[in-house]
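Our preliminary data section would be incomplete without showing what the modeling component actually yields. Below, a chain of 397 amino acids is followed by its predicted structure, encoded as tokens that our downstream tools consume directly.
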Amino acid sequence: MKRLKYDVVVVGGGPAGTTVARYAAKNGAKVLLLEKRQEVGSPVRCGEGISKKILQKIELEPDGGWIANEVAGAKIISPKGSVLELSEDLAGNETGYIIRRDIFDKHLAKLAATEGADIMVKTTATGLIKEGGKIRGVFARQLGQEYRIEADVTVAADGFEARLSREAGLKTFLKLRDVDICIQYEMVGVKTDPLFTEFYIGQSYAPGGYVWIFPKSENVANVGIGVNLMFSKEGATPKRYLDKFIASRDDLKRAKIVEINGGAVSVSMPPEVVTKEGFAAVGDSARMIDALTGGGVMNGAVAGKELGEALGKMAQEKLTPNEALKEYEKNWRRRLEVTLARNYLAKERLLELTDEEMNDIIEAVGSIKLEGLSTAAILKAVKEARPSLAEKFADFL
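Predicted structure:
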């Protein structure tokens, strides 16, 4: 078995993991990033929409290499066809750029490598090294070679499965209602407005979730769906609902599928702690996904920056490993936790709404000038326009 020693070992090469590696290395830490696939960024497992705000928050310059399309805003469509049109500034964390996610993720990995992080692809973390009640690194395997990789801090950024987080003892268990199952087609020959993303909400479109159309060019778009797992017992499979939606649309039914991808995403609250001695989780491994939208790129990257900077202070001996992890817990929660909690509560209520009530919400929001598309702003609009409907959300209005 080959032995390696680092300040930080990061497991997972998505936006959260690469951002941790980038900022930890930038601030002086000796970092190793492990990715189980043969290349970072593939296969794609999301709709590929992000807001421009994420670029500022992680100091990332726009790059035409990974930006497929820039959109002006979003359209939210109710079951009866009412349309709420929102500018890019108001449209949330999944609107602004439609990216080429595989190229985007690889770009983030290259930034981490440029800052000094080492990267091993086609490398699987097989388990945690535990000694004296502390996590001291990971065991890994690459092309038949076994590794013992020791580190002051091990970072789990291994996504929805959260295998290392569970092994570390974090409470990442998910109920059925806290999981969305998604499938997406990249389609050619789509006749849609390239300047707007589209979101179709309501139980008839997608039980407990929504359908999206993200235009990548004038005739290419990602068309996908997320369905809450609690409806699976009723036969609400994502593919069946997505195919039904496409077949009903003249602008989609003749388009050709050139790629299919999918997976599961957590729509839960994060656990009470996302760290243990010598260990931290980030991104979906720490259940940092926005429960209302299912979006996680921005949250994972923002939290990853906080963790990377704290680990850099550890490497500079300004903080002990335990102090660095406490700083990370404090800072990521300060940035994200209130929004995550509010949107989780909103998700719970939306699971119970009928199509008629969803129509009322879109019409209510459309009747009032919003200062921003936050859950609070939407609920305020509903309260003013549909007081009876607002009673469903009374406990956090």
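The chain has a mean pLDDT of 90. The first helix runs from residue 15 to 26. Preliminary results of this kind motivate Aim 1 of the renewal.
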